[in-house]
From TrEMBL:
Organism of origin: Linum tenue
UniProt lineage: Eukaryota, Viridiplantae, Streptophyta, Embryophyta, Tracheophyta
Database matches in SUPFAM superfamilies: GST C-terminal domain-like, Thioredoxin-like
Every GST N-terminal domain range: 29-110
EC number: 2.5.1.18
Catalytic activity: RX + glutathione = an S-substituted glutathione + a halide anion + H(+)
Domain GST C-terminal positions: 115-233
A cellular component term, taken from the record's GO annotations: cytoplasm
Name the record gives this protein: glutathione transferase
UniProt family annotation: Belongs to the GST superfamily. Lambda family.
Gene3D superfamilies assigned to the protein according to its UniProt record, in alphabetical order: 1.20.1050.10, Glutaredoxin (3.40.30.10)
Amino acid sequence: FENSLDKSVPEILPPALDASSEPPPLFDGVTRLYTYYGCPFAQRVWITRNFKGLQDKIKLVGIDLSNRPAWYAEKVYPPNKVPALEHNGKIIGESLDLIKYLDSNFEGPSLLPDDPAKKQLAEELFAYTDTFTGTVFSAFKGDAVKEAPAFDHLEAALSKFDDGPFFLGDRFSQVDIAYIPFVERFQIFLSEVFKYDITEGRQKLAAWIEELNKLEAYKQTKLEGTKAQVVEVYSKRFLGK
């Protein structure tokens, strides 16, 4: 009898481990995703896990980033950040690498099409992720409208293939996963603080966000109170409030 999770409902998240917590039994054959439930980088890997139906195979281990356990850097992941994956006796980090790693090394629906043109766009958009987030983050410190070209870039990318609403057309892919945790937060912050709507005049982007909000694998990683948390964290970080 396999204790299988009902993958159609949000799972009960284990409490985050802090400085007072004992480590799990490390390298005992269990595959673990070390995460922080509010971190957009870690959310990328969490979405990938859920979409591929790996809730039974990959155990979530929450880490309290404001009060990290010493053993996390010492025994698990020396860079002392999330996400990190414990798999087959080794630890792997970096969210974009982990999206690809989960897709290549685990069962479940593939998150990359065979079409060479779509694969090429996927690589280009992967390479653009840091530019995208950096551009928007820097705009938070000044004039929010300055980040408009970053969202125009996404609108243009979403227009490349007309066979569906996703970046690579008809199929949800690694690329959608790479962008949605950040777009979600940017949309909240720009709307709430700057009264700027990222979807205005960007029909494809609006349709993409709407489509992703129907997807269980993503919805299950969105936390209650995200809006207030995003406004608080980004206001403190970028506006000094």
